[in-house]
Amino acid sequence: MQWETVIGLEVHVQLATRSKIFSGASTAFGAEPNTQACAVDLGLPGVLPVLNEQAVAMAVQFGLAIHADIPEVSVFDRKNYFYPDLPKGYQTSQMYHPIVGAGEVEITLDDNTTKCIRIHHAHLEEDAGKSLHEDFHGMTGIDLNRAGTPLLEIVSEPDMRNAKEAAAYLKAIHSIVTYLGISDGNMAEGSMRCDVNVSVRPKGQEAFGTRAEIKNVNSFRFVERAIAFEVERQIELIEDGGKVVQETRLFDPERDETRSMRTKEEANDYRYFPCPDLLPVVLDQAYLEHLRSQLPELPADKRARFQTELGLSAYDASVLSASREMAEFFEEVHRVCGDAKQAANWVQGELAGALNRESLSIQNSPISAQQLGGLIGRVLDDTINGKAAKQVFQALWNGQGSSADEVIEAKGLKQVTDTGAIEAMIDQVIAESPAQVAQYRDSEPEKRGKMIGYFVGQVMKASRGTANPQQVNGVLKAKLDALL
Ligand code: ADP
Ligand code: MG
Q1: CA distances from 135 to 139, 145, 324 (A)
Q2: Starting from the edge strand earliest in sequence, which strands make up the sheet with 90-93, in order?
Q3: Which of 70, 140, 165, 468 is 20 to 30 Å from the Cα of 437, by its Cα?
Q4: What is the pLDDT of residues 146-202, one digit of tens each?
Q5: Ligand 1 in reach of 184 Cβ (< 6 A)
Q6: Rounded to two decimals, what is the model's pTM?
Q7: CA of 246 to the centre of ligand 1 (A)
Q8: Do residue 21 and residue 55 come from a single domain?
Q9: 300: helix, strand or coil
Q10: Into how many domains does the chain fold?
Q11: Same domain, 405 and 425
Q12: Are residues 141 and 58 in the same domain?
C-alpha cells in the first residue's frame, strides 16, 4: 500500500511589542519569575484589559504580507479551561471572527521550485504562564511573566505533503515575520512555536485520515523529525489493523518520538463566548492603507527581483533572501561593487565560510558590507588578483585596516601588470631553475603545459602573490618555448 502524508501547521508567533496585549507590563524575556505580571495579567478582580494597538498593527501587517482578507470587524473570545499557568481560568483569543482571514504563503523547496500553502486564518491571543518543575522540592512553581504576551496564531490549510514542505513552510513564516519586524523569531526562546497536525491516507484517496496534533515543536529540525516519527507510527498502526485516534501528542527530542498527551478536546469543551470586557476591533480602509504603505519588500518579492533584475540563479536568490539581514548585507555589497554575481559569490562563499567557522551570524560579521563591496571592486578593476583578494579579506576580517584600499596599500598587494617587471622576475626564476628547464625541454610537448605550473608558482612566490597570473602564464610559455 502506498501512503500519502497530510500536514497542517498552527504556528504561534510571539509579537515583538514592548508591553503585553492587554496590559502595560513588560514582555522582555528572561526576567526574574513573576516580576513582569501585573493585576490584569493575573486576572485579579476589578481590572479591565486594554487592547495593545501595536499588536493589532502587527497582526494586520502580517495579513497584508500574505495577501489575506482583513475583515472590517474582529472579536475577542474567552477560551475557558483550567490550568495552573492560566490565572484567569480563560485565555483571551479569537475564535469566530479572527483579525486575519484567508491568505497564502509561498514556500521554496530543495529543488528551488515553489509551492503555495493556503492560510486558513490568523488570530490574536494571549500567551499563558509557565510551570517550573525544577527546584521546588516536589512541588511545581508558576512563572507568570509570559502570561498576556501577545501571540499571533497562524493556521494553515492541510496543504503540506511531507516533512520537508512543513519545514520549508515554517522557514517561510519565520522569514516573513522577521522581515516585517513583528517578531524576533527566536525559536530557542520560544518566540515561534508550532503545533503540527499529521495524518496519512492511502495514495489516491480523497478523504483525509484522522489526524494527531503534535504540540509545541520549537525548531525546524524537530518539525521534520516529529513528522517522520509520527507518519511511521500511524502507517504501522493502520497496517496492523488498528485505527489512529484524534489526540494531542508531545514530541520528545531526546528519544525522537511522540507520546500521547490527551485525547483532543472539541471547541465545545472550551465554552467559547465573546469577551464582554473588550470591544470588537473595527479597522477602516484608511488604517489598512496606512499599514500597507509601511510594508517592506517581502522575501518572495525580493527573491523574484534578485532573479529577474539582478540575474541571480534561483538558488542564489533563495539563499540571499532567506533573512532580511542577509538580503540587506548582500544588497549593500552589490551597491558598492556593482556586480551582483560577484557579490553573491563572495557573500555565500568566502564570507559565509568564515562566519560559519566562527559560528557568527551575518549581523555580527567583523567585515562590513561596505568593506566587502570595496574589496570586490578592486578585484573587478584588476587592482588585485584573486589570491591577494583572499589576503585582503582575511586582513579586514581581523580588523587590520578599515578598507580594502588601505590593506592593499599597507601590504603592497597591488597586482603587478608591468610587463618589464614580470619579465625580470621570470628571467630570474628561469636562471635559477636549470634542472626544471632541462626537464621541460626534454618532456613531451603535451606534458609541458602541466610542468609550466612549477614556474608560475615560483614567479608568483617571487612577486609575493601580486603578479597577474594570466600574464605570467603567457610570458613564461613564450620564454620557455624560446629555449627549446
Ligand atoms: P481544530 O479547530 O480542532 O484545531 P482545525 O480544523 O482548525 O482543527 O485544524 C487545525 C489544523 O489542523 C489546521 O492547520 C489544519 O490544516 C490541520 N488539519 C485539519 N485536518 C487535518 C488532517 N486530516 N490532517 C492533517 N492536518 C489537518
Ligand atoms: Mg487549533
Answers
A1: 8, 18, 40
A2: 90-93, 77-80, 273-274
A3: 468
A4: 999 999 999 999 999 999 999 999 999 999 999 999 999 999 889 999 999 999 999
A5: no
A6: 0.86
A7: 11
A8: yes
A9: helix
A10: 3
A11: no
A12: yes
Cβ contact 373:351 at 8 Å? no
Kindly state if the Cβ of 314 falls inside 6 Å of ligand 1: no
User: How distant is the alpha carbon of residue 300 from its chain centre?
Assistant: 13
Q: Are residues 305 and 267 in the same domain?
A: no
Residues 76, 272: contact at Cβ < 8 Å? no
Q: What number does the ligand 1 atom closest to the CA of 264 have?
A: 3
Cβ atoms of residues 427 and 448 within 8 Å = no
Q: Which atom of ligand 1 is nearest to the CA of 9?
A: 14
Is 393 in the same domain as 441? Answer: no
CATH of the domain at 436: 1.10.10.410
Report yes or no: 142 and 84 within 8 Å, Cβ to Cβ.
Answer: yes
Rounded to 10 deg, the angle between the 324-337 and 314-321 helix axes is 120
One-letter amino acid for residue 133 of the chain: H
Does residue 292 lie in a domain region?
no
Q: How far apart are CA 197 and CA 53, in angstroms?
A: 31
199: domain range? 3-287
**237, 348: one domain:** no
What kind and span of H or E run contains 156? strand 150-156
Model confidence over 326-385: pLDDT tens digits?
Answer: 999 999 999 999 999 999 999 999 999 999 999 999 999 999 999 999 999 999 999 999
Asked whether residue 156 falls in the same domain as residue 249, the answer is yes
Q: Using an 8 Å Cβ cutoff, are 366 and 397 in contact?
A: yes
Ligand 1 site-directed mutation target among 156, 162, 211, most atoms within 8 Å of CB: 211
Q: In which residue are the cell numbers 540563479 written?
A: 313
Atom of ligand 1 nearest to the CA of 208: 23
